[in-house]
Amino acid sequence: MSAKPRRSAAAKSTTRTAVRTKKPAAARANPLLSPWRAAFGMPPFGTIRPAHFRPAFTRALADSRREIDRIARAKSRPTFANTIAPLEKSSRALTRVSRVFFSLASADTNAELQAIERRLSPKLAAHWSAVMLDPKLFRRIDDLFQRREALALDPEQARVLERHHTSFVRSGARLDFRQKKRIAVINQRLATLGTHFAQNILADEQAFKLVLDGGQDLAGLPEFVRAAALRTGSDLGLAGKHVVTLARSSIEPFLQFSARRGLREKAFEAWTRRGENAGAHDNRKIAEEIITLRAEQAQLLGYATFAEFRLADAMAKTPAAVRDLLDEVWQAARAAAGKERDLLQKAVEREGQNFRLEAWDWRHYAEKVRKAEFDLDESEIKPYLQLDRVIAAAFDTARRLFGLSFKERPELPRYHPDVRVWEVLDRQRSHVGVFLGDYFARPSKRSGAWMSGLRSQQRLAGDIRPIVANVMSFTRGADTDPALLSFDDARTLFHEFGHALHGLLSDVTYPSIAGTAVATDFVELPSQLYEHWLLTPEVLKRFAVHFRTGKRMPDALLQRLEAARKFNQGFATVEYVASALADLELHSLTSAAGLDITQFEREILVRLGMPREIVMRHRLPHFSHVFSSGGYAAGYYSYMWSEVMDADAFGAFEAAGNVFDRKTARRLKEFIYAAGNRRDPAEAYVAFRGRLPTSGAMLKKRGLAA
Ligand SMILES: [Zn+2]
To answer: How far is the CA of 468 from the centre of ligand 1 (A)?
Structure first.
């Protein structure tokens, strides 16, 4: 649906470049290898084609290796200036090409890019292993680290040195030759497995389409769900048909509203079985091998389990600290979910039905109970949440908190016609960075929502400004109508925009500690904290405007929305914490050979006493947070860890009596949003708040404590 306009644009600009430049043919044809001359150094998306990546990576990898060799083999005594600074400056071409490639591989992929990704991932892993395990390079870094007190470093330099030293040690720099070889093999294999894991989920998602056949199949669906399904149909080449896909923003409303129980079951079944279907896209064996290799990796590095290894360098420090938090929440959440289930079962019976509530019924009856108990109906809220207005609300919040403004720049390059590009300016109208918003689901995009950095802020190689993207999977509106968001979608938009601000406001010298390059259990603080502003009347009242009538959201509806906030939190907490605990337990195995993850999942859920009507938010066979890149392996708890902080942090604004309090916002920017990884996360939090957080505010927010 999207390939055509891009291909023609690419062809045009390639011709232009060819006329202008006088470089050798290979370089001329490859925009990835030429300087990027678009405004703000934007990648030349219009001219990049899949075939450009292979030669670009080959050259960038060679450049990177050469730059690092030069540092490692230097004869002079190590100094910060001849070792750490050039290390920070090295591999720029590789970083540049990698970021463009992986942005496309997740947001707008195709068979060609997928094939490149499968070949490339192990190659990149091998490259970085060779760097991190280079004995000469580590000797220089270790020498500096041992003498760090005597080096007269400024605090940021000291932090950068410490971070490099830690990450070399954690990568295996202190192991003997044979162990290092094994670590490199493991890294390479993990990269391959992670790529397959993600591509298998996408394949299962692309394979499923629920085509609603005529009036009966549409029973219960409000106008906005029908319109979105119709739009999805035409996007998928089924014009005139209503189609539901496995994108969260397509299937969730369907599960909420469809009166066809059999269809709900069918869609839910496909959704929750992603990655678990026998055949070419089965993730179960892949997961077993990933867990086995991670356990071995951790043990080589001197830890009993991967969870211990992983958490030692997180804010949580130990699996026990994580378990304490999750257990505290689990009991309360399960009790709350039990009460919710009883309410839902009663709603089933009130309809004169006698079936027992199942997982595919939960969202449907939750919606009905929400309507009955709180007089709140998703289809009543949605017309007020127009995508453009919610984007404007996120921007305006950034203006009021941090003085930022956003100017749309439609002439800047983008990788897909749906992508929108804004220049970000500060109070003095100086350039801050570039923000890309890519909001709609499409088959070439993996599901979910994320922020990605196309370029990090830094000052080491000149005043380099950040370029960050937010990628979402919203459904479009009917042809002439604006896209309308659910309240959850709007929250997701604010969440990812919080990550984007963490990248955009970054104010550091060294690129390795810029923006979101912080511990995983800290990185969700700027994003989740930002969600709080969406819920304030100051924001909702101004930006929630009915798309047909142009009227603002009435106070009464706002109040009902507020009153219903804690409803179904038992469910939301249970589905999340079950995934977080399963992740932790999985990575607490000392050996995983022969592991059957489906069986393992079942056993854990039994032990936890998982309510049978609730399914984990991410079942293990498609738990991409944990398996695809390893980013959240033994780290899915991070959202709740950060939530303890965000609930507590927002309390600082409430205590000031103004959710846009200037002084508090200034501290928030200085110590959190602009600070990158300049200091230890706990220290950063204390610098902002004056003390460490406690879980009280989080439990209260979820309605799990008085
Ligand atoms: Zn996040």
So the answer is: 14
Q: Report which of 30, 38, 10, 42 is spatially closest to residue 454, judged by C-alpha positions.
A: 42
pLDDT by residue (tens digit) across 127-180? 999 999 999 999 999 999 999 999 999 999 999 999 999 999 999 999 999 999
Tokens of 663: 């002084």
Name 124's Cβ contacts closer than 8 Å, sequence gap at least 6.
Answer: 57, 61, 98, 191
Using 50, 70 and 90 to split pLDDT, how confident is the model at 377? Answer: confident
User: Do 548 and 481 meet the contact criterion of CB atoms below 8 Å apart?
Assistant: no
Q: Are 133 and 172 in contact (CB under 8 A)?
A: yes
Distance of CA 4 from the midpoint of ligand 1 (Å): 32
Q: How far apart are the CA of 528 and the centre of ligand 1, in A?
A: 7
Residue with tokens 């969260």: 248
CA nearest to 510, candidates 164, 128, 173, 35:
164
The CA distances from residue 517 to 171, 359, 454, 551, 634, in Å, are 17, 37, 13, 42, 18
**Beta strands, E only, 100-254:** 210-212, 242-244
In sequence order, the β-bridge partners of residue 468 are 435, 453
Ligand 1 center to 524 CA (angstroms):
5
Largest Cα–Cα separation, the chain: 84
47-84 tens-digit pLDDT: 999 999 999 999 999 999 999 999 999 999 999 999 99
Judged on CB neighbours under 10 Å (0-12, 13-18, 19+), 694 is exposed
Catalytic residue among 67, 367, 496, 575: 496
Q: Would you say 377 and 220 are in contact if contact means Cβ atoms under 8 Å apart?
A: no
Is there a contact between 302 and 206 (Cβ–Cβ < 8 Å)? no
3 state DSSP class of 77: coil
Q: Which residues lie at CB < 5 A from ion ligand 1?
A: 524, 527
Helix, strand or coil for residue 208?
A: coil
Q: Is the pLDDT of residue 521 over 50?
A: yes
3-state secondary structure 256-282: HHCCCHHHHHHHHHHHHCCCCCCCCCC
Q: In the predicted model, what is the mean pLDDT of the chain?
A: 93
Nearest-5° Cα angle at 456, 647 to 183: 90
Burial 468-479 (b: 16+ CB within 10 A, else e): bbbbbbbbbbbe
Give catalytic status of residue 496 as yes or no.
Answer: yes
Q: What is the CA radius of gyration of the chain?
A: 25
Distance 47 CA to ligand 1 centre (A): 31
| Residue type (1 letter), 462 | G
Cα gap 303→592, rounded to integer Å: 15
Integer CA distances (angstroms), 154 to 600, 675, 688, in order: 49, 15, 21
- What pLDDT score was predicted for residue 28? 60
Instruction: Look up tokens 């993996």; give the residue.
Output: 446
DSSP 82: I
Task: Please give the distance, rounded to the nearest whole angstrom, from the Cα atom of residue 497 to the centre of ligand 1.
Answer: 9
- In this structure, the dihedral spanned by the alpha carbons of residues 338, 341, 343 and 344, taken in order and rounded to 10 degrees, is 170
- Close Cβ partners of 324 (under 8 Å, ≥ 6 residues apart): none
CA-CA distance, 307 to 313, in Å (whole number)? 11
Cα of 525 to ligand 1 centre, how many Å?
A: 8
Quote the ligand 1 centre to 447 CA distance (angstroms).
14
Q: H or E stretch including 434? A: strand 431-440
| pLDDT band with cut points at 50, 70 and 90 for residue 480 | confident
Q: Which residues contact 683 (CB under 8 A, 6 or more apart)?
A: none
Nearest-angstrom CA–CA distance, 688 and 656: 14
